[in-house]
Design brief:
single chain, about 110 residues, alpha/beta, Cyclic-phosphate processing receiver domain-containing protein, cREC_REC
């Protein structure tokens, strides 16, 4: 499963949508996730992508690929630094959204 956490943006093809941090963390704990894409700001009074990143790091819930699609440069930087500092060998953490070429591959894999 590929997981996209965002409270506002539409879910891209080939991904399961988590609208908040709690749902994202539940899915990460219960299902194998191949690609994770995280937003930072999840609405007023809600947990943030930093909270999700902290749990991923502390509980070692890392999927093989993590992308940070947040429009908040500070939020992206904070999540990236936290995730990168604790990542296990073989995990890729990208400080930006999923490139279009990678999205095409993910879409194709989900169709077939």
């Amino acid at each position: 499963m590929n997981l996209f956490m965002d409270d506002y943006r539409p879910c891209p093809p080939g991904f399961k949508l988590a609208r908040d941090a709690h749902e994202c963390l539940l899915l990460l704990q219960e299902y194998p996730v191949a690609v994770l894409s995280l937003d930072y700001d999840l609405g007023p009074g809600q947990l943030t992508g930093k909270d999700v990143a902290a749990v991923i790091a502390s509980k070692q819930l890392y999927p093989p690929e993590i992308y940070l699609h947040s429009s908040s440069p500070e939020g992206r930087r904070t999540m990236y630094e936290l995730l990168y500092a604790h990542k296990p060998e073989g995990v890729s953490v990208h400080n930006g959204p999923i490139p279009e070429e990678r999205m095409r591959v993910i879409r194709k894999e989900s169709e077939g």
